[in-house]
Design a protein that fits this description.
This protein is of the alpha/beta class. About 35% of the residues lie in helices and about 25% in strands.
Length: about 450
């Protein structure tokens, strides 16, 4: 009856890595993707990946001589809105070519027995006589049967949006729910300047980082709403910060989700992962490792749910929800709410946070006094605005409540809807990054 145990829609980092994990566990898996194999992940070239992540996800470190490897650095910086203060964070990071990194993952998955099929577009879900998901239809009319369908299609969320089930939120990821990532690949005019590590300015959601060309760099920003607004944010960033003079090579555009993940990733015969599940880090929008944090234990749960030919019910898959939402989900929920308050302030307010190591601090920095005490002190000295204090304390309070609520995520589907009702109320109070935008029409 079934052609495969699992069909994964999307052959990016999330889908390919999950296929590797499942294949290692003896699961018969097929990954499909709408693109040609040679065109996969060509949208963005350079990305960063930590040495710590290689170890955490059981991958051999990329090294000089490997096709995907570009360079490596051991720490990064962030700077205040007025460029007065700098924080240093120790982090060993590999600079790599994304398409070649995914190719490496794909070869590992194929070696373990995973199957890939390109130029194959998902069209719809197939249901069995009991109205349970049991495979997919492709745009050319082909029907492929499986016991589990996994949506790893990225922001379009083509499978999740087709699921009609009370446990799955099938809303689209719209312009307010993501960051448009605008990247300029540049050659620096001064040959004596080298960009060999990442420097970010969180206030502008901007950064400069290494790329593959000698004497080159990547200047980037992330912004809600549209590509036009992202270009406006890039101009504001470059007008405010004295970046090295450069000659433009070319531009790249991408997008990353920046909204809360669905409250449930699973239902009968279905799982959503990666960008389709909005699994990104609130502090920088990076989604690869966040998705893999979900995928690693999920592979064990899926393998068990499929054992002895069983159909994977939502009850059998529910542990995926509980494991993620009570750990990284809880942490990121609180942080996402806090950051909404942290960006709702002036450049001078941001400078004060940096000056006193509040939110933004170096790894080896010792900060005296409590956060609240230092903020109040700033208000009294008129170095930090009362409105910023109010926004930050409110965001912190909501974030703390969200974290606590997520840690109480139900162990079974029975308690889900009651938990969801309170979660929705808290997220309404938290708001979003897009709520802070006041210059979209300028």
């Amino acid at each position: 009856m079934y052609n495969y145990d699992v069909i994964i829609v999307g052959a990016g980092t999330a889908g390919t890595y999950f296929a590797l994990l499942l294949a290692k566990r003896g699961v018969k898996v097929l990954v499909i993707d709408k693109d040609k194999e040679k065109d996969l992940a060509k949208r963005l070239d350079i990305f960063h990946f930590t040495s710590e992540s290689f170890a955490e996800f059981n991958l051999e470190e990329s090294k000089e001589g490997d096709p995907e490897f570009v360079s490596k650095f051991s720490y990064c910086y962030s700077r205040s809105a007025l460029d007065n203060y700098e924080k240093k964070n120790f982090l060993e990071v590999h600079v790599m070519h994304l398409p070649l990194f995914i190719k490496r993952l794909r070869n590992l998955a194929i070696k373990e027995g995973a199957n890939f099929k390109f130029e194959t577009t998902f069209a719809d879900l197939i249901y069995d006589k009991d109205n349970r998901i049991s495979g997919i239809k492709t745009s050319n009319g082909e029907e492929i049967r499986s016991r589990l369908v996994v949506d790893a299609s990225g922001i379009p969320s083509v499978v999740r949006r087709k699921v009609s089930d009370p446990y799955i939120e099938n809303w689209p990821i719209g312009p307010r729910d993501k960051f448009y990532v605008f990247l300029k690949y540049v050659l620096l005019d001064d040959p004596n300047i080298t960009i060999d590590r990442s420097v970010s300015w969180p206030y502008y959601k901007g950064w400069i980082a290494p790329q593959q060309s000698k004497g080159g760099a990547i200047v980037g920003v992330g912004a809600n709403l549209s590509t036009d607004y992202a270009r406006k944010c890039m101009k504001k960033f470059e007008d405010s910060i004295p970046l090295p003079k450069y000659t433009l090579q070319y531009e790249e555009w991408g997008a990353t989700p920046y909204t809360r993940p669905p409250f449930s990733f699973v239902t009968d015969g279905f799982l959503v992962i990666g960008d389709a599940a909005c699994l990104t880090k609130p502090m920088n929008g990076e989604g690869i490792t966040s998705a893999w944090v979900q995928s690693t234990p999920a592979a064990d749960v899926v393998a068990q749910a499929l054992k002895d030919g069983k159909y994977p019910t939502k009850e059998a898959l529910w542990k995926i929800n509980h494991l993620y939402q009570t750990k990284e989900g809880a942490e990121f929920a609180g942080l996402r709410a806090l950051l909404v308050g942290a960006v709702a302030m002036s450049k001078e307010d941001n400078d004060y946070l940096y000056a006193n190591g509040i939110i933004f601090r170096s790894d080896d920095e010792e900060v005296k006094g409590s956060v609240a005490g230092n903020l109040i002190k700033g208000v009294l000295k008129r170095k930090f605005s009362y409105s910023a204090l109010s926004n930050l304390l409110k965001a912190s309070n909501t974030g703390t409540k969200l974290t606590k609520h997520y840690k109480r995520y139900p162990l079974t589907p029975e308690g889900y809807f009651k938990w969801k009702k309170k979660a929705l109320s808290l997220w309404k109070k938290a708001g979003s990054m897009a709520d802070n935008i006041t210059d979209a029409e300028e």
